[in-house]
Amino acid sequence: MEACIACGIDHVGLNFVPGSPRFVDFDTAIKIADMARGRIQVVGVFKNHTPQQVLEIARRVHLDAVQLHGDESPQFCADLPYPVWKAFGVSLGWDPSILSRYKGLAVRLFDTASGGQSGGIGKTFDWGILPLHPPRPWYLAGGLNLDNIVAALEYCQPDGIDLNSGLETSPGEKSPDLIAKAIQLLSPWRGTSAVPKPGKAGPPEVIDGQSWAVWELVPRKPSGDQEILWIIDLLQAHGGRLILDARAREGDPSEIISNLMGIQMASRARSGRIKFRLSEPAMQAILSASLATVLELVD
User: Fold this and answer.
1) What does pTM read for this prediction?
2) Does an H or E element contain 11, and which?
3) Per-residue pLDDT tens for 178-205?
4) Which domains are present in the chain?
């Protein structure tokens, strides 16, 4: 909990499922919740508990929300006087129409299906079978770790992610070091609700035997320093190599070039490398200004 507070994590889950390696008893749960009070939201994790059990635990521990991983009905969720995070097990052939039956959820949590329910197995599912436009807010769970959380965020663009076994040294033992590393990777996506992500991930490319992440900028005008900082965070999350595809950028070519030069300078200051892919007008502008050697270009 001290590591989570230091890293500024938004929510911490306390697991009340008997038999789970992450199960916490009342005394431990209350101590942890007291540490978090006013600094981190505390969510209780339940699976096929009775409404009375959920309410008793939530009141005694002073939970901020409840997360349900069993076969709890829409009415069960609607009757609880707490924000409800309902987990839905996702696997090939699952029926996403079930989402429409659950009204008023605080969060929809998509997790790996396990025995007809959701979560607890530390494995990912095929993100391609998620609904195209799921009701928001929704969070992604299921086998997320340092190796795949960046790809998960770029591909799925959830409102949040649920990390569990991927931050453990053994079942139930969270690692402060892994927590800190995860938050470092997640930094480009945190606190960006007022600043839309400036594009989307493209297929990675191999250049001279090295894999480069690709980010395709959206068709709008450059948005200044906030966008540059976001892209530099993204560059660092990808190991210091990034191809920035700016062909869709709108506006005056000289303004676009100026923005990209700012990004280039910021990347070099952090020992990173960004290659740029430009539209034909932008290419003409950079050539006419003799700036072709300043920006590292792709084809």
Assistant:
1) 0.67
2) strand 11-15
3) 999 999 888 877 755 434 456 677 777 8
4) 2-189 (3.20.20.70), 200-288 (3.30.750)
